[in-house]
Design a protein that fits this description.
There is one protein chain. About 10% of the residues have low confidence. The longest helix has 21 residues. The chain is of the alpha+beta class. It is globular, with a radius of gyration of 20 Å. The protein has a single domain, classed as Immunoglobulin-like, CATH 2.60.40. It has a five-stranded antiparallel sheet with strand order 1-2-5-4-3, with no helix packed on it. Helix content is about 25%, strand content about 35%.
Length: about 90
């Protein structure tokens, strides 16, 4: 393989890798996201069995659920709560 062919192949791999990374950017932000109808809690926590938030107004622990569409080593947890101020 010539140096030019190798350079083209490596450049193509880098572009493909960058495209794959860009494709994995989440549609929704992480953290708490307030809206008119409530608040969404969303976190990335790949190596845990459960995630919860404590909502001070309610004084209770609220578990987050695994968001579908992610591999087991790339877990995103989410919960939508009605009318919670962040």
């Amino acid at each position: 393989m010539s140096r030019i062919s190798l350079r083209v192949a490596l450049t193509s791999l880098l572009v493909l890798h960058a495209a794959l990374l860009w494709a994995q950017v989440p549609d929704a932000p992480f953290g708490s996201t307030p809206a008119a109808d409530g608040t969404t809690f969303r976190v990335w926590a790949p190596f845990v069995d459960s995630v919860s938030v404590i909502i001070a107004e309610r004084g209770a622990t609220t578990p987050l659920l695994k968001e579908s569409g992610h591999a087991d080593d790339d877990l995103i947890w989410r919960e939508d709560q009605a009318v919670v101020t962040a």
